[in-house]
Amino acid sequence: MTYRVCFVCTGNICRSPMAESVFRSRTAEAGLEDLVETDSAGTGGWHEGDGADPRTVRVLQEHGYDSEHTARQFQASWFARLDLVIALDSGHLKSLRRLAPTEEDARKVRLLRSYDPAAGDDLDVPDPYYGGLDGFEECLEMVEAASAGLLAAVRAEVEGTAA
């Protein structure tokens, strides 16, 4: 049985494709690529059909990650096939929980940085879109830091499901 994770930010061109790429890499390194499906989307459809922001692509490539991506908007109907919906900031968390058709679906939505014990109280990954390349580097650092905890949680779910 495949465990499905979708990362969600605003336009699906910066943070969520970055998180998708990093987490896909982590699941492959852990030997879980056949058990975990990783995806991303945006709360809005402004960039549907576009590739990732060139700065996202650059930072991902410089750090050895895949950067293939086409932006799309998250749909409420997706909750039925997803196991976990990862919001990149508290605004996305609220939007996604409002969009969820059921309480069970709303419980599938979590903040990415909640999986990073060093994150403290600030669980938002700041939107790097209006800044320079350093904001994209900072975003990658936050995503990478949270990915270890997320991988551990997903591994526990997958192994629990497979048992």
UniProtKB/TrEMBL annotation:
Concerning InterPro entries, the annotation shows:
LMW_PTPase (IPR050438), Ptyr_pPase (IPR023485), Ptyr_pPase_sf (IPR036196), Tyr_phospatase_low_mol_wt (IPR017867)
Q: Which CDD domains match?
A: LMWPTP
Which Gene3D superfamilies does the protein's record reference? 3.40.50.2300
Q: What name does the UniProt record give this protein?
A: protein-tyrosine-phosphatase
Q: Which SUPFAM superfamilies match?
A: Phosphotyrosine protein phosphatases I (SSF52788)
Please give the family membership noted in the entry.
Answer: Belongs to the low molecular weight phosphotyrosine protein phosphatase family.
Is Plastid a UniProt keyword of this protein? no
Taxonomic lineage from the root = Bacteria, Bacillati, Actinomycetota, Actinomycetes, Kitasatosporales
